[in-house]
Amino acid sequence: MNYLKVINLCSVRLAYRFTIALLILVTAVNGAQPSSIGKEKKLVITILRVASQNSAAKPEVLKSFSFDFSREGEEMIQEFKYDSRAGDKIRFRIENRSDRFVRLMLFSIGATGKVSLIYPSQSIDEPLSASRLEAGQRVETKDFNIVAPAGEERFKLFIGRLNLRPLDPNLGVSNRRSAVGPKGTSANQSNIGAVFSTSGDQGKSVDYYDLVLAILRSRTEKDIEAEITALNNRGLAYYKISDYGKAIGDYQEALKLLEGAELPTRTALKHRGVLLSNLGQVYGSLASYDLARKKYEEALALKKELEDKEGVAIVLNNIATVYSALNDYKSAERYYLDSLALAKELELDSVEATTLGSLAQTYLALNQTDKAADYALESIHLSKQLGKKLSEGLARNNLGSVYLRLKRYAEAIAQYQEAVALFRLEGNRMGEAIAYSNLMFAFEEYQKPLIAIAYGKWSVNLLQQIRRESDKLEKDLQKSFIASRGDTYRVLADLLISKGRIPEAERVLEMLKEEELLQYTLRDKAVANALSKRADLNARERKAIEDYALVSDKITAMSRELEELELEQSKLPLDAPFPKQARYDELKAKIASAVQTFAVFERQLEEEFGRNDFRVRQLNIGLQEKLKSWNSPDTVIISTIVGPRRTHIIVTTTGAQEPHTIDVPEEKLNHLIEDFRSAITDPCACLDPRPAGQKLYELLVKPIEGDLAGARAKTLVWSLDGALRYIPIAALWDGKQYLVERFQNVIITLASVGNISAAREWVKNWRALGAGVSQKRGEAFPALEAVPQELKNVVRQDNAANPAEEQGVIPGLRLLDADFKRDVFERARGRFSVIHIASHFDFKPSGEDSSVLLMGDGLLTLTEVFSTPTMFSGVELLTLSACNTATGGNGTEVEGFGGMAQARGAKAVLASLWAVADQSTGVLMRQFYANLRDNPAMTKAEALRQAQLDLLNGRVEMPRPGIDELRKKSDGKTDEARNRADFVPDPKSPRAHPYYWAPFILMGNWK
Question: What are the pLDDT digits (tens) for 782-799?
Answer without folding.
Answer: 888 888 888 998 999 887
